[in-house]
Design brief:
By secondary structure, the chain is of the alpha/beta class. The chain is built from six helices and 15 strands. It has helices spanning 89-101, 118-130, 147-154, 169-177, 261-268, 273-295, and strands at 2-10, 13-18, 23-29, 43-49, 52-58, 64-65, 70-71, 75-81, 105-111, 135-138, 158-163, 189-190, 195-196, 204-209, 212-216. A six-stranded mixed β-sheet has the order 10-9-8-11-15-14, sandwiched between helices. A hairpin with a 2-residue loop joins strand 4 and strand 5 (52-58). The longest helix has 23 residues, at 273-295.
Length: 296
């Protein structure tokens, strides 16, 4: 019996890599596994039956994400472009919440920094200040800026690249892997609406080197937090972590400045006020969804 990682799913065929023997196989599910949902990133056990490899077991996952549909992710590279399209901070905040809730290390990857001008430098400094609690990498795939640093971040981990359409995820991955080794379709930016075409058709793992894997995931422009409880949302904001409010169950939303030290910190600029405002928006949406769920 061999342990292997699912790196691609094509209909009912599963492409798996056996690191121990440096081998790549195409496998099928055995009968009792056909009702089990298998994701890219899953670790499975396989056996060889004549000339066919068969998946006969699934190793317990360390985590699983619905969108993108991947399992066993060590870190997520959250791509935002400094321009064209402008950063979607609400999307970024939701992605960060998802990562922390799933025990995935988030890395904010700011792309297209070769476009920096005086105006965009202000935008860059905002990101670096508001999100100073997270690891940040600045890159340009066009000018090869920051790619070596990004490679160091990726080393010996399974990393999913995620982000809004048009931010250059696939371009970065193509640079990392080498265009002559893999053919990753990259869509041209639609200038008319300043958004990229959705060109990544499925989730696939690529190997940079032994033990280092990256996933290119489908582009999207919305990001729903499917399984986050509104009461738990505050636990996924690292800037709130060491702030003690008057009441232990403080939601950091409707309480007054006398009771809520998080709100007080935001009012004084110790916490970015815009990120705090987006926290309130996300909290309200999650609470409304929760109320609707229990009214049914």
């Amino acid at each position: 019996m061999i342990s292997a990682k699912i790196i691609e799913i094509l209909m009912d065929k599963y492409i798996v890599v056996d690191e121990e023997h440096s081998a790549l196989h195409t496998a099928i599910l055995c009968g009792n596994m056909k009702k089990t949902k298998i994701y890219v990133g899953d670790i499975v056990t396989i056996i060889q039956s004549y000339d066919t490899f068969v998946i006969n077991g699934l190793i317990k996952r360390k985590n699983m994400v619905i969108r993108p549909p991947v399992a066993n992710i060590d870190q997520m590279i959250l791509c935002v472009s400094i321009d064209m399209p402008k950063p979607d901070y609400t999307l970024l905040d939701k992605q960060l919440v998802l990562c922390i809730s799933k025990n995935i290390i988030p890395v904010i990857c700011i792309s297209k920094v070769d476009l920096l001008n005086d105006e965009l430098k202000i935008e860059l400094e905002y990101i670096k200040t508001a999100y100073r609690f997270f690891k940040i990498v600045e890159i340009s795939s066009n000018k090869n800026i920051g790619l070596d640093k990004l490679r160091d971040v990726l080393k010996n981990k399974t990393s999913a690249f995620s982000g809004n359409s048009g931010v250059g995820k696939s371009s970065v991955i193509t640079k990392l892997l080498g265009e002559n080794l893999f053919n990753i379709e990259v869509g041209a930016l639609t200038a008319k609406i300043n958004r990229g075409k959705h060109t990544t058709k499925y989730v696939k793992i690529y190997s940079l080197e032994t033990g280092t894997y990256i996933l290119d995931t489908p582009g999207f422009s919305s990001y729903e937090l499917f399984d986050i409880e509104y009461k738990e949302l505050k636990n996924y904001y690292p800037e709130f972590k060491d702030i003690v409010c008057k009441y232990q169950d403080c939601s950091h939303t409707n309480e007054g400045l006398q009771e809520c030290n998080v709100k007080l910190a935001a009012s004084k600029g110790a916490i970015d006020k815009d990120r705090y405002a987006r926290y309130n928006e996300i909290y309200t949406i999650l609470k409304q969804k929760d109320n609707i769920k229990y009214k049914k």
